Request: fold
Amino acid sequence: MFQGFYNLASGMLTQNRNLNVVSNNMTNMLTPGYKKDTMLSSTFQEELMSRTGNLDRSNIDGLQDTSMFRSPTTNVTNFSQGAFEPTNQPLDFALENENGFFQVLTQNNDVVYTRNGSFIIDDQGYLALAEKGRILGTDGPIYLGTDDIILDETGMINRKDGTAAGRFAIVDFADKTQLRKQDGSVFTTNANPIPSDTRIRQKILERSNVDAMVEMMDMLESQRTLQSASQMMKMYDQLMGKAATEIGRV
Reply:
C-alpha cells in the first residue's frame, strides 16, 4: 500500500514541473524567436515484483518489473523555425532558416545567442537586443547611429548616406543540445560556435514556434492528472488511517 504513496507523490511533483514548463511556453508565445521546451521524465531503477506461497515460499514466481518513483529529468528545446511576420520596422531582422543565431555581447562581456531579431538602438547608437546587450558583427558591436538603414544580401548594414555600419556575424552550433536557455529567447553555451551563411531578412520577425492549442491541451492534461493524484492520495491516507486504528480490534 505504501508503494501507492510513492507513485502518486512522484506523479504530482512531475506534473507540477510540467505545468511550469508549459506555462513558460505560453508566456513567451509572442516573444520573437522563442523556442518551446518539452519536459522529459524517467523512472528510478525498476524492481522485480515476485509472488510467494502462504506456507511454502521456496517456489518464487516473478510477476513484472515496476518502479515506485518517476521524476522530471530535463527540458528539451525544440529548435524548429517559427513563422515569419512582416513588421515594416527597419530594426527587425529574421534568419531565413532554422540554422544560425545572432550574437549578443552582454554588459558582463559575455556572448549569448538568440533568434530574436527585434532590435533597438541603445543610448550610444549601437544595435542592441533590449535588456540583453549589443549585437555583434564581424568587427565587434554594430554601431548605427540611425535607423535609416538598408540590409544587403551579404548581411551588411548600410546607412542611407552610403556608409557601411557593419556586417552581422551569424553563427551556428554542430550540436544544439549543448545550448542552455538563459532567459526567454537567449541561450548560453560553452561550445565553440561556427560561422553560418544563413541569410538575413529585414523588416521581418520570426515568431515563436509555440502552438497555443497544443500547450493548452498539455496544460489541461497535467492539471487533470494532478487533481486525480491528489484525490487518490486522500483515499490512501484514509485507508492507512483505518488500517492503523481499526484492523486487529477485538
In short: The chain has two helices and 21 strands. Helices lie at 2-27, 212-245. The chain has a mean pLDDT of 86. The first strand starts at residue 37 and ends at 43.
